[in-house]
Amino acid sequence: MPRILSLDIIRGIAVMGIFFANVIGMAMIDAAYFHPPTYGFFSALDHIAWAVNYVLVDARFRALFSILFGASLLLITDRAEARDQPAWRAHFPRMAVLLLFGLVHYYWLWWGDILANYALIGMAAFFLRRLPVPAMLMGAVLALLVQHGPLMAGHAQQLPRYEAMRAPDATPADRATYDAMIARASESAASIAADKAAHENPLTHAREMTLPENRWQPFKSVTDYGFETLGLMLLGMAAFRSGLLTGSWPRHHYAVLGLVVTLPSLAIFAFGTFTIHASGYDRMAFYWWDYVWLPMLQPICAMGYIGLILWLFHGHEASATGLRIAAVGRMAFTNYLGATLIGTLLFSGFAGGLYGQLSRGQTWLIAFPVCALMLAWSQPWLARFRYGPLEWVWRSLAQGRWEANRRPPAPSAKPG
Q1: Cβ-contact 118, 66 below 8 angstroms
Q2: For residue 25, is pLDDT > 60?
Q3: Residue 148 included in any domain
Q4: CB–CB of 328/378 below 8 Å?
Q5: What local confidence, expressed as pLDDT, does residue 414 receive?
Q6: Which end of the chain has fewer CB atoms < 10 Å from its terminal CB, N or C?
Q7: Contact 138, 230 (CB under 8 A)
Q8: Which residues, including other chains, have CB under 8 Å from residue 7's CB and lie 6 or more apart?
Q9: Distance, CA of 6 to CA of 248 (rounded, Å)
Q10: First-to-last C-alpha distance (Å) of the chain
């Protein structure tokens, strides 16, 4: 079955986009990922980097990644059944190997791993693959509401109480309670120093931070945000079955989806960015936007991005630009883990030693050459090999045999 270039192009853009968010989490203390003033937030470049990520990147490209994972689930199982092979035999070994990769990624490289969660939720999503498209869409909406609805409602009820606790006319007891809550959410100089020391190398971080505090997080992620992942996978499955992700819709339909969905979404994100900036990056402003207004907007905006991408590339998937981006997407697994490896080498004390040394803006700029590297090496590699390096290992382990990867040399033309 030939490659679906539209899928590869979206996946390529997603894996590059997600690194603009991930690199911040790799380079500085965890709290700064969620509240910029906590660390490394000094210059205009730092503010610009945060604003661009907040408006265009944060959670959107992870949502794209999750949507495409659902589509890939169907693609793999459909191909297996077309070869008269049981779908479960193609799917579950892949998920088991992906889980192993995810655990290694989480425990040894970076706390922000998503692969283990994909593997665990992907095992459950397998049993929903035969649902009709309307049922998939309903299931996606329901799963996202189950994930975000109670949290959004709970925060909407609690936040006015917190606002009252810090108001000028608040009682001393309320003010003390609020100050204590903020202190618990803040990072002390001692905790920042301990965090930096733990990042001297990945082994130290795993021993001193990850294992004592978050040993079971890859599995706990199923209850923490598993319904969100499942909802996005179902959305991807529905988009694949409907032909949206395969590029088979008329081009003007993609334009409508992209413009009608994306522009209002980005306007809301821009308004949130302005509101947070105008508040002086107040924690309560972040809470309102991060936990009440935006969670359900992220997947909607991600679908708008899909519409925009496929509108721009419709009929031009095989162009020079399309093929280069598609190559990044075909090697998304290698590029995703490779970007983490680059981050580990740059920021860990045993190599680059840059952890906690750069501001947010300086860190953000690192994403540009890393994405350029993805674009530069993926296509030449695939001209010589069938799969990316880690895709080949993943595929071989899942099948229980080492597959040939190197492409045979092109036959030379005979003289005369």
Answers
A1: yes
A2: yes
A3: yes
A4: yes
A5: 54
A6: C
A7: no
A8: 68, 71, 72, 75, 245, 246, 329
A9: 10
A10: 35
Question: What's the whole-model pTM score?
Answer: 0.92
CB 106 within 8 A of CB 218: yes
Q: Looking at residue 107, what DSSP letter applies?
A: I
Contact partners, residue 300, CB within 8 Å, separation at least 6 = 261, 265
pLDDT exceeds cutoff 80 at 195 = no
Please give the sequence-ordered ranges of beta strands (E in DSSP) within 61-166, or none if there are none.
none
Structure tokens at 316: 């031009």
Instruction: Tell me 249's DSSP state.
Output: S
In sequence order, what are the residues at sequence separation of 6 or more whose Cβ sits closer than 8 angstroms to the Cβ of residue 49? 360, 361, 363, 364, 365
33: enclosing H helix or E strand: helix 30-34
Measured in residues, the chain has a length of 416
Query: What was the pLDDT predicted at 208?
Result: 62
Q: State which H helix or E strand residue 197 sits in.
A: helix 189-198
Tokens of 186: 């803040």
Which structure tokens are listed for 349? 């004390």
Provide the domain count of the chain.
Answer: 1
Burial (CB count within 10 angstroms: exposed 0-12, middle 13-18, buried 19+), residue 323: middle
In a domain, 407, yes or no: no
Paired tokens of 64: 């794209």
Alpha helices per DSSP H over 331-366: 332-347, 360-365
> Crossing angle, helix 60-82 and helix 115-125, to 10 degrees?
50
- Examine residue 287 and state whether it is found in any structural domain, yes or no: yes
**Domain range for 80:** 5-399
Contact 126, 157 (CB under 8 A): no
Torsion over CA: 54, 59, 61, 63 (sign): negative
- One-letter amino acid of 82: A
The answer to whether 336 and 15 have CB atoms below 8 angstroms apart is: yes
CB-CB neighbours of 389 under 10 Å: 15
Q: Which of 132, 109, 63, 51 is nearest to 301 (CA)?
A: 63
Q: What is the pLDDT of residue 410?
A: 66
Which structure tokens are listed for 401?
Answer: 């045999």
SS3 category, 62: helix
pLDDT band at 416 (very low <50, low <70, confident <90, very high): very low
pLDDT, the chain, mean: 91
Alpha helices by DSSP H, 28-125: 30-34, 44-52, 60-82, 87-104, 115-125
